[in-house]
Amino acid sequence: MNIKKLFIASALAVSALGVNAKDIVDTAVAAGNFKTLSTALKAADLVPTLKGKGPFTVFAPTDAAFAKIPKADLDALLKDKAKLQSVLTYHVVSGKVMSTDLKAGNVKTVQGSNLMVSTVGGAMVNDAKVVAADVAADNGVIHAIDTVLMPK
């Protein structure tokens, strides 16, 4: 292959990567098991934040995690923007923390409170089990959890 063709092929590959780039929100939507989280992020006006530069680590409750909350309580939470923002930002940590970088102990959330991380017998965040780790996004990483975390 001559240099000109190689350059064109490289340029096409790089532009294709740019088109497929996905932030935290797009990655969560594409995963398919974060529909309630996506709805909550929209209701809390947090979509622009999680589409931002980051990097962010999101301990993302799955749809099954949200299903554990009684419907009336979940509906009330989705209508209370301030409380919803507090709950959702309690699931977010600044920086990109891959599962191999998780260490037992407290970690400060964007909300301002601490989460307790344990790594014995699998990763846990407070009382939530990490059910899928290291879902990479361009501006961070998602770790799916089985319980919605509530700040104290």
Please give the structural blueprint.
Blueprint: H1 3-19, H2 24-31, H3 35-43, H4 47-50, E1 56-61, H5 63-67, H6 71-79, H7 81-89, E2 92-94, E3 105-108, E4 114-118, E5 124-125, E6 128-137, E7 140-145
Parallel strand pairs: 1-7
Antiparallel strand pairs: 1-2, 3-4, 4-5, 5-6, 6-7
Give a structural overview.
It is a single chain. The protein is an alpha+beta fold and 152 residues long. The protein has a single domain, classed as FAS1 domain. It is 40% helix and 24% strand. It is built from 7 helices and 7 strands. A 7-stranded mixed beta sheet has the order 2-1-7-6-5-4-3. A hairpin with a 2-residue loop joins strand 6 and strand 7. The longest helix has 17 residues. The chain starts with a helix and ends in a 7-residue tail after the last strand.
Low-confidence stretches: 1-19
| SSE arrangement, N to C | HHHHEHHHEEEEEE
CATH architecture: Roll
**CATH class descriptor name:** Mainly Beta
Task: Provide the spatial order of strands within the biggest beta sheet.
Answer: 2-1-7-6-5-4-3
Strand content: 15-25%
